[in-house]
Each structure stands twice: as C-alpha cells, then as structure tokens.
Amino acid sequence: MKQILLGLAAVFIATAAYAADPAKVGDTSLGKVWTDQNGMTLYTFDKDTKGATTSACTGKCIAAWPPFVAAAGAAAEGDWTLVDATDKDGKAVKMWAYDGLPLYLFVKDKAAGDVTGEGVGDVWHVAKAD
User: Fold this and answer.
1) How many independent structural domains does the chain possess?
2) Burial of 126 (0-12, 13-18, 19+ CB in 10 A)
3) Considering the domain boundaries, does residue 85 fall inside one?
4) 52, 102, 109, 123: which is deepest, by most CB within 10 A?
C-alpha cells in the first residue's frame, strides 16, 4: 500500500511540474505583460464581460484581434479559463482567458514585445502580468 501511495504521489508531482501557464510574461515598453509562446503581446477588450463564456469580439473585430486559441484538449486551471469564440473563418474555437477576461493578439503587432494595440478605440489594453 505504501508503494502505491508513493507511486501516486510521484505521478501528481510530475503532472504539476509539467503544468504550465498557456502564456508567458514578457517585458515591453509598457511593463510586464502576458504574451503567447512567441512573445507576442496579449490584449483584453473592454466589451468583454469578466467571467462570460463567449467572446464579445466577432466579425471584423476578430479579424483584427485574433483570439489566443487554446490547443485541442486544453483544460482550465487556476486563473486560466476557456471561452468560446469564432475565428475569422467562422470556425468555433476555444480561447484562453486570464482572470475571467478573454485574451487576443493584434494583427498590427509585428514583433515580439510590440504593444501597438494598447488604447486602440479606447477599448483595447495590454494584458498586464502584475
């Protein structure tokens, strides 16, 4: 019995060690922000409702602000949740949300660390990683 418990403990520890946030923290001219794995800045949209299950950005909006898409089989954990969205091609996808707010990329950001989407339309903001 003791060996079984030790084996299970090892599995749980190994699983926790491999669990990682879907985004990483990057340094930008606006401070530390959440980025995708390529270092591209993630943004929040004021028209999204915190904790909603669906993105408020659709149509032309989603073409300019692609969702931070979750990989198939991704699961919510901690402050990271999943939200339903429709991509620019009309395909239903799951996107990541942090602290209840969906996260987006901006098509005009061209290099890691760009923050050109900050303040666009007074409704887009970098996702601060405080």
Assistant:
1) 1
2) buried
3) yes
4) 102
